[in-house]
Amino acid sequence: MSEDQGGVGKQRIDPVTQYFKLVRSTSKNPPKLTRPVPKMPVPSLEKAQKQGYMGYQRGIPTGPDGRKKRRTLTVPSLGSQINREVVNRGWEHDLANGWVMGNWEHLVGERIAAHTQPQRIKDKIVYVSCDNSTWATELRYLQRQILRKISDRLGPDVIVELRIHGPKQRRNYEGRQWVKPQGSQDTYG
């Protein structure tokens, strides 16, 4: 085997370098690349900080591991944008009211929530209806604790009162067969 074929004694030339040599040799005005690149004078760090000059940085800044630094994203989160819009538009109390209606079971507990239901919220007052008068009385006893839970979660003066109503009383003189009594019902007895 000869040295030309094996390449043991011959130095291999990069194809890109070969191409550039070919282009330079055929060009009428080839660039002179033998001159060194001029360097800018960089003052000392203390001097640079006093003058406000930090120097020219070539290339992409890298971290301590040599990798390119991540671009810092200054995009605000969706939650912070929504909170800002809610505050700007004055929707805090409306959203707080919705929270009270949606989380009634967590405020009063499962047992009481099964027999009570908030009907509406108007002028910082929650109107609550109950299955029977016993549950209405129970809820009246717990009213302060419920209002304290609401104020801890949503802030003071969002809900200031609970208006608790028992079931609607049925009239016992209803129906097709009922006839209005005539005269006095007193038996003088």
What's the mean pLDDT score?
A: 79
Strand content: 5-15%
Oligomer: single chain
User: Which series of helices and strands comes N to C?
Assistant: HHHHHHHEEHHE
What structural class do you assign from the helix and strand content?
mainly alpha
Number of helices: 9
Provide the spatial order of strands within the biggest beta sheet. Answer: 1-2-3
Strands, count: 3
Query: Radius of gyration in whole Å, from Cα?
Result: 43 Å
Ranges where pLDDT stays below 50 over 5 or more residues in a row are none
- Quick one: overall form? rod-shaped
CATH architecture of the domain at 81-165: 2-Layer Sandwich
The helix content, as a percent range, equals 40-55%
Distance between the termini: 143 Å
- Class of the domain at 81-165, according to the CATH hierarchy? Alpha Beta
CATH superfamily of the domain at 81-165: DnaA, N-terminal domain
Largest sheet composition: 3 strands, mixed
CATH topology of the domain at 81-165: GMP Synthetase, Chain A, domain 3
Could you please describe the fold and organization of this structure?
- By secondary structure, this protein is mostly helical.
- The chain has a domain at 81-165: DnaA, N-terminal domain (GMP Synthetase, Chain A, domain 3).
- The protein has helices spanning 3-6, 15-26, 45-51, 78-89, 92-102, 104-108, 110-113, 133-141, 143-154, and strands spanning 116-122, 125-130, 161-165.
- The chain has a three-stranded mixed β-sheet with strand order 1-2-3.
- The model has no long low-confidence stretch (mean pLDDT 79).
- It holds the Pfam family DciA.
- InterPro entries: DciA-like (IPR007922).
